[in-house]
Structure formats: structure tokens, C-alpha cells
Amino acid sequence: MRFPPQDSAPRGRDRRAVVVPAPEGRSTPPAGRRPRCAVIGGGIAGIAAATVLAERGVEVTLYEREPSLGGRLAGWSDRLSDGSEVTMSRGFHAFFRQYYNLRGLIRRVDPRLSTLTGLPDYPLQHSSGLHDSFARVPRTPPWSALGFVARSPSFGWRDLRRMNARAALPLLDVRIPDVYHRYDGISARAFLDDIRFPTAAQHLAFEVFSRSFFADPDELSAAELVLMFHIYFLGSSEGLLFDVPNEPYPQALWDPLARYLQGHGVRILTGTSVRELTPANGGGHLVASQDGTQRVDAVVLAADTQGLRAVVEASPALCDTSWRSMVGALRTAPPFLVSRLWLDRPVRPDRPGFLGTSGYGPLDNISVLDHWEGEAARWAARTGGSVVELHAYAVDPAADPHRTARDLITRLHAVWPETRAAVIVDQRHELRSDCPLFEVAGHHRRPTVDTPDPTVTVAGDLVRTEYPVALMERAATTGFLAANAHLRRWGLRGQTLWTVPVTGRSAPLRFLARSGARGSFAR
Asked: How much is the pLDDT for 6?
């Protein structure tokens, strides 16, 4: 079998990206000894796990309770009031250039990543009138940070001098698990206050990052925020610009990957929930689902927080009591709302494809889909309109979602006044609450890839890992790691992985960080 090129080379520009070698072993199982594995969950993590397992000759069944693959990036067909067929989803996601393993997964079906297109900027706007941009900020640290300070109206040299340097120095040398030992016990907001990070810059930069976790900065662990700072800013030279799929998620990603998996013999069962896992006589597990019961040698649990809790609660013999209690205590982040509007006229042509916002009530960002997504662009060209998407993260669970949706539209009018005259041809609103919450002091209570049962692994963005990864890249990375753990036991070769550098990039700065941070944030 010929393996894809990402097994041996990273596909980013950062020469200091770190390789995580694959477990060594055979390319395929011996004749007549083909293992069976159930992968529960068809999002990024489950697809990554199923992919490498199937490539190594494992017999894989992929279970997904929803009608389609993709998890939180799934899409589905819908029809607008004007008769147009469209693909609805749960909203915009940024494919950063640091996402080596996710991009490696996509390269299975798109070697040149032609389905991804880069957005020229990641502008941020506050209601006070402040704007920040990353388009012309250098990508290589420390020039990236210095360039941001030099260009940013919200963070100047005076602000830099006022900061608590002793408390901020560890940002120069982020390490795992040290970052969790140091910062997991405080909130992102408390950390920013303690280092005296400028209030305006908090709104325009770090609050945008924290809300990428769909959480309020007062609830988010500072360790996750600091890790994000390392991944995107001081630890990597890939920069803060990103790519987006140039067609809806199913057409660009999941349909091609489903065909790839089926070509490797994967049995894909969408619309199929796993009810229970029970030990099988002689080893392995019995997987009970709507499709019946099958016996497997191993399981990858790649469901979201709610799905993982449900399977574990229904499987009293799975792993041990302590592990099941840990999974049962996992929490989800507050709800988020995605509002997609089909307007009868275009927004101003100079509007960015993506705009992060702060100070506009519940509105956290605006996307103009017809600037980069083919399906939306074709609708806009045919009708003379535009397709605009609004996001509200960390919505108050007690809030009326209809009122919140109306508020988002009002805030859109405040940000881009030309939209006040636009007629909404149609609109769709998706309120969901299934993202993991990375709460203060919660890191040690999250599951790892490995479990007390070596035949069971866990994958997903909720999983605790020793590598500097987050969000979609954590899902892809842990999916590969979960597969690697089984492949290692079976004597099969695993998947090579890549991450951003696992320490600060400069030896003098690392020394300064270690010497200056002793005793700070010892909570």
C-alpha cells in the first residue's frame, strides 16, 4: 500500500515544526489476522482515527448518530423560500496553517489543498472604533509580537512598558504540562488582569481567542489561552492568517473523505447511535447499535462530550468506575448561535470575508460567505445579493434565542450600516450547546487518549494530550493518536504527526522566562 506524503514531511513553512514519529511495525496485518475496530463518532477525530486504521488494513466500522459526517462541521441540504438549494451548517471555522495533522488528513483526498482558500486578513473591530489587523504583521516570532505592537492601535509601546513583565515572561516559553500546572487554576480573565494586559487589547485579541472555545473568559482556563498564544503567535511562524473551504463542508471535505474511507473498506453507519459497549467473551467488545450488535477487538470513542457521556453511562462494565465518573463529570460550554442571512443586495465590496467583533453585545464575528464559498458566491451572482453569517458565542442559557437572533441583526446594522437597507430574503438560525468546556482547574479531569482498558481509546477536542494543539487540530491529532495506540498493540505502523514547536523558539528568551517566572502564579 502506498502511504500519503504527509507521513514523512510537514506541509507548513515553519522549519521548527516538531515531528512525532509513528509507531513502527508492519504495513498491513498478517494474512488471516485482520483486527476489527469500532470508531464511535464521525467528526474530525473519528474520521482521522478511521482513516489511519483502514490504511493499515484494520477492519473499521464508523458509527455516527447524525445523518451525515463532520461532527460540528457537518452540513445538510436546505431549500430557501426563493427555491434555491443550499447547504446549511453550524458556521464558520478557520483552518489555520498550524493545523498540520488536520491538513494532512485532508491531503488524503486533496493533495494540494485546493479546496482551501486563504483569507487575506483577520481584522478585529471594537465598538469604540479601534481596529486591529494581522495582514501585515510578520509571521516569525518574536517579530510577530513586535510587529503587532508596532501596528496595533489597541496595544502600544506604553502598554508594553506597563505590563507585569515578571508574570508575563512564561509566555515566552510555553511547555506542556507545565502550562497547565502554572495556569489551569486561574481564569483567562484573571491572567490578563494580573499581567496588566491592556483592556482594549483584551477585547480585540485575547477575548476573540477565548471565545474560540465558546466560553466566557471568566470561565475559561488561563492555560488554554496561554497555549493558544503559543500556538498562533509566539511559538509558531505560520502566523495568524488562515484558510477556509471554498465550498460547503460536505462537498469540500466529508463527501470525498467518505469515499476514501469506503475505498479502504470502512463501513460507515450514519444516523446510527451506539447504545452500549459490553465486554465480549475471550476479549474485545460487543457494540450494540440500531444496526445490531457486532464484536470488535478495539474501540475508539470519538464522540462529543454529550455523546461520550451517554455511551459511558450506558456501559457500566467499560473501563473502571473512576474513569467513568471522570467522563460523567465533563461539562459543555454555554450555547452558541449561528445566524445565516441571505440578503437581497451585496455588502460593501471592501468588507472582509471574516471580521472579529467585540463590544457589540452578543455579536462575536461576521462572515461574508459569498466572498469565499462557491455555493454562496453562485447564489449572490444569480440574485445580486449576499450571504452573511453572524456568530454569538457563550450565549446566556436563559436568554431567548429569538431575541438574541434579532439582536445579532441589529448589531450587524451597527457594524456595517449598508445592511440596514437590505431585505432578508431568507434566514436560518442554529442554536447548539455541545462544545467542551475547558473550565478553570479542569485539565486533570479530562480524559486522555489512553484509558484503563488498552483496547479502548478516546479522541476529540475534549481530550487531554501532551502536545501543543487545540480546537480542530486537537481533534485530528488525538484521532491519529487513538488509532496509533491500537496499531502499536497490533504491531502495525502508525501515523507520523507534526506539531508547532513544543517550547519557546529562542534560547535566551527561554532562559529569561524560566528565571523571571519563578514563583509567579503559584496557585
From this structure: 44
> pLDDT of 81-94, one tens digit each?
999 999 999 999 99
Q: Which of 477, 468, 73, 378 is nearest to 244 (CA)?
A: 73
135 — pLDDT class (breaks 50, 70, 90) = confident
Give the angle subtended at the CA of 157 by the CAs of 154 and 158, to the nearest 5°. Answer: 85
| Dihedral, 38, 43, 44, 49 alpha carbons, nearest 10 | 0
Rounded to 5 degrees, what are φ and ψ at 385? -105, -155
Secondary structure element (H or E) that encloses residue 106, with its range:
helix 100-107
Task: Check if the beta carbon of residue 99 is closer than 8 Å to that of residue 107.
Answer: no
Distance CA 483, CA 295 (A): 18
Tell me the C-alpha to C-alpha distance, in Å, between residue 483 and each of 85, 104, 274, 522: 37, 15, 19, 36
Task: Encode pLDDT of 30-82 as tens digits.
Answer: 988 899 999 999 999 999 999 999 999 999 999 999 999 999 999 999 999 99
Q: Which amino acid is at 59?
A: E
Write down the residue that cell numbers 514523512 correspond to: 8
CA angle 221, 215, 442 (to 5 degrees): 35
